[in-house]
Design brief:
Shape: elongated
Largest sheet: 7 strands, mixed
CATH class of the largest domain: Mainly Beta
Strand order of the largest sheet: 17-22-20-19-16-18-21
CATH superfamily of the largest domain: YbbR-like domain
Number of helices: 5
Distance between the termini: 100 Å
Amino acid sequence: MKMVSRVKKHSLKFLSIFLAIFLWIYVLNSEKVRFEKTVSLDYILPEDMVFAVKPPTDAIFSIEGPRAFARTVSEREDRMILDLNRANPSRKLSFQVDINPAQISLPFGMRVESVLPRRLDIKLEMKSSKIVPIKAQLFGELPDKLSMEKLEVIPSEVEVNGPRSIVSNIKFLTTKPIDIHDLVGQETLSADVNIIDERLNLTGGSKVVLNYKLKAASSNLILKDLPIKFLAENKTVETKTKFANLKLLVPEKIIKNRSNISSSVQVWADIPQNSKGRLEVPLRVIHPPSMMLLEISPKSIIVNIQ
């Protein structure tokens, strides 16, 4: 009997402790808190209109409710879609849209106290499009003995879309500024079109390629008897021509500061896959971007692939 009485006594203690912890957790989590939440705003525009003035991209909701749900609601990503076709059936260019707090889903016991902004001023403009040329925007100067022989932008034209008042005044677009020194040592360069207004967009994207050719008055460095390397997978390559000569235009400071420039220049012959027998292979030169290749001799070699 004593044992049973002792077990009952301890059981009541554990039950009391459990109930106390449960009540403490319940009271703590049912306590009401107030917090702010940022909700992203997405707009559905009429097909033939664009924003004349960019509206807010988010709204701040002040929410009150049980602490138990506060963290989950505050950390989740919420987006609100505003259909401007429904909000503006008369197709006005200037009107107001109310943000409805009921559009955001909240757990039981939570409510929206306020929204900032509560009302949005919407200003629209008719959309327009136009095909305009693209020009390269270069700054700086080429090194001595170098000149620009050819320069073209591909594509040379682009279709620009946006507010009619802006598009109608655009005569051409340019690339983002390009340092002309970046052109040395190569013949193509990827560039971005400079979009002059965030409300504009380009059909086909904003990437273009510069194709150009630099002309040198003369070379200032000749490298002779550079060994030709072969890029061939599990093939035996035989050739009578094993060396090449190069004419380069190299910045004077590199010539002064580096005693062995030839170690930074390589000549390669790329052997096509699955090729056999006698074949003519062009040579390619790998060199630092600051150097410019003017001539390679020979330009190609005859190889026998086994």
